[in-house]
Amino acid sequence: xxxxxSIYVIEDDQxxxxxLVEILELEGYAPEGFxxxxxxxxxxxxxxxxxxxxxxxxxxxxxxxxxxLQAREQLDPSxxxxxxxxxxxxxxxxGPLEGQxxxxxxxxxxxxxxxxxxxxxxxxxxxxxSRAA
Amino acid sequence: MTWVSSSAxxxxxxxxxxxxxxxxxxxxxxxxxxxGIKQVLIMNLKSTQTELExxxxxxxxxxxxxxxxxxxxxxxxxxxxxxxxxxxxxxxxTVYSEARVKRRVDLVNRQLEKLNQLIEDMLDISRVAxxxxxxxxxxxxxxxxxxxxxxxxxxxxxxxxxEGDAYRIEQVITNLVTHAMKHEDGKxxxxxxxxxxxxxxILSIRDEGIGIAPSRLKTIFGRFERAISxxxxxxxxxxxxxxxxxxxxxxxxxxxxxxxxxxxxxVVKLPKxxxxx
Lengths: 133, 277
Known about the structure:
Distance between the termini of chain B: 52 Å
Number of helices of chain A: 5
Mean pLDDT of chain A: 86
Number of strands of chain A: 5
Number of helices of chain B: 6
Shape of chain B: elongated
Order of helices and strands of chain B: EEHHEHEEHEEHHEE
Mean pLDDT of chain B: 84
CATH class of chain A: Alpha Beta
Structural class of chain A: alpha/beta
Oligomer: heterodimer
Helix content of chain A: 25-40%
Largest interface: A-B, 27 and 28 residues
Order of helices and strands of chain A: EHEHEHHEEH
CATH architecture of chain A: 3-Layer(aba) Sandwich
Largest sheet of chain B: 5 strands, mixed
Helix content of chain B: 40-55%
């Protein structure tokens, strides 16, 4: 079992999602990609292990970021306490659930900024850098 | 019609006896007409103001959507170059592996194509607005165009060749099929091309997906409109507007019917030999 910090990447654009997953893997994290909020909620309802940080897009099909934040309110307190970081072209997000996000980052994303945010929020063991092709 | 104001005053003599009646009449027609015209002008101005406010709101929403759609490929390209840069700087040799380089090249090509398409759509809006959408006249075989889409569809095509601008008609077919595939909810998309009418070709695209609410159906061909919530489906919302403009420029028509949770059908009717093309 990996002891790397688990990160959820909830993003509908496959290329962006794959890129974020690739970057996080290279940095030694254990990322998991979801193409919409619904998929992530289903995973959070019966998790093998909870993520330490969630990166969330706002505009997505099926279930967008706002709806995801609302749905998360119905889940276990341990899920509600996981930091959610918004990555979107339309931040700053201003809404009733604004207080539930740990932070917001505007696309296009700067990797160094993103990684420092994750390092701040991921409380797990410090990642070991991967060298997998 | 004539408007008149009339007043009368009783006049008395030195002994206070009534001696005469003085009547004053004033023609108010011109003033009343001016007031009427003013009221009509005010109503017209209010209507124009409402329409302008709606246009400005739609334009602002469009700019917002444009920014979001343009940022998606830019974000993807930026991430790829940043991660490659980090790998190069850290001396990670896997950045040069054939598999990784190929993956990056494919991604960059995909995102550049997406950017180009967004820009083309925006240019088309400008061409339509200024009447510069020029059409060619050439032979079109819808079967070839549907085959070139390279997607799984249930297609029924009769022999239905006609004349028009092949590039623009392909654009219409792609827009309608893409719309159907975005809303198909995992169910099949049916495409039928018919030449049952002597002068026209009928193209029908039907999905069995989530459908479109009646309120949104009314505005689906409007510029900058999106059939369902802007938060849930990506795209500039120009496809339907451009499709209708192209079909109308060919002398044809496009209609849509939909039922929520049952699906949507678009029917395009194109003359076999369009006038003005």
